[in-house]
Amino acid sequence: MSESVKHLWEVEHSYRCEQGSYFGDGSTTENHKTFADFLGEMGGSDPDYNLLFRWDWEEANEEGHSTFNGDNNYRNGELLLFFMAQRKGYYFAHCVQVCRADEPAVRAFLEPRFAHLLSLWEPIK
Questions:
Q1: C-alpha angle 14/19/24, rounded to 5°?
Q2: CA separation (Å) from 77 to 28, 38, 44?
Q3: Which helix or strand (DSSP H or E) is residue 39 part of?
């Protein structure tokens, strides 16, 4: 990876996204122990039916301090993936336990979905 490209866990988005719907009971989040488990369920999902509009990779404790212990295979992070089922108007999230070694697979999942999201705004780009 290029020196100028940030790692996914280094990105801090400017605004927070809630895992549950404002109007719901918070049951719209699925949890996964590994990224491989997540891919088994959602890896081949249709990007229109399951429109990924945001992700957050978090590696901090409640005080905001990093939980990384130096081992790239240590599962200290959470990858939050936020989706919209467009035809149903249904918002949902997936919370995946990740390690830094998962980053190439996570990028491989995110990149085509980013391209799809941009295609929805084609006249603007």
A1: 130
A2: 20, 14, 23
A3: helix 35-42
Chain centroid to CA 15: how far? 15
Which residues make beta-bridge pairs with 77?
Answer: 98
Residue 55's Cβ-count burial label (10 Å; 0-12, 13-18, 19+) is buried
> What integer is the mean pLDDT of 31-36?
97
Contact of 94 with 78, CB cutoff 8 Å: no
∠ Cα 42 48 53 (to 5°)? 75
Read off the pLDDT of residues 93-107 as tens digits, 9 standing for 90 and up.
999 999 999 999 999
Quote the distance between the C-alpha of residue 76 and its chain's center: 15
In the chain the first and final C-alpha atoms are separated, in Å, by 25
Decide: 109 and 98 in contact? Cβ < 8 Å.
no
| CA pair distance 3, 90, nearest whole angstrom | 38
